[in-house]
Amino acid sequence: MASSGSLRAKRATLIELNPWARAGLPSLETDQTDAPAAIGHGLFDAGRLAQARREAARERWAQGYRSWNAWATAMLALRGDISGHPSTVELWRELATADFAGVRFRESCDFAGFCFPGPADFSRAHFGVDAWFNAVHFADDSDFFQATFDREGNFERGQFDGRARFDRTRWSGSAQFRQARFAAGVSFRDARLDRDAWFTETLFAGPTSFAAAQFAGEAGLGRCVYRGETDFSLARFNGNGGFEEARFHAPVRFEAAHFGRKAWFQQARFDAHASFDRAQFADAIDFTDVSFVEGPGVVSEIATRERSAQGL
What are phi and psi of 159, to 5 degrees? Predict the structure, then answer.
């Protein structure tokens, strides 16, 4: 465990990296190594903190990629140094949060290659221009709840270390997530994707939900790896739905899903329970060379769906 002087130095470094918080957090430079975190203990007004944090995030973003990532790298290094001090870690997370909740991006939105060391809040943000998040690194939770994308949203090769939430998002432009990595779970529950949505070669390592999501255009979910339980129940694929060569390591549900056009599952592999109960296939479906761990029961169910789709 770090000494009193060492921890005091690390707290001072935290303030140096976040000078906007200096005036309200005098306790960080005391010798009280076990002092409770300043946030929520009367040492700083939560409303003032939130406002100052929002302004700091916007100013840092305006300075560009290099400035932002220099701050992020230093914050992540400091996070490792204080891991044995919960109260300081709590405070670090408050200061590391990037708050863009409700922001309207009208002229530009370029976060390509950015690293977010703490939680990133883009809930209810409105992207009126192309949103560039390709090769982004979210080292903590990321929240896009009810965000609106008027144009393309590009998250290709994005790395999501914490939980990612895209519930009830609205996409007027295409959604690009090719080769993304979701390490701790992601949810697109009740998302509305009015154009093409591409997740090809993405890794879903944790629980994944597209429950009640609506895909108006092409849904490219092929060659993906699903390691956690996955839920496509009540999803609607109004365009072609592609799951070719997908690998499902854990149970997956397509219960009451609707495929309005072609459904491609050729060479997909289901290593755990797969449920297609009440799934509807209105057009051609392809389950060529699909592997089911459960064997004949599921194959028979799919064959029934095929005959129904062909009107036999």
Answer: -115, 120
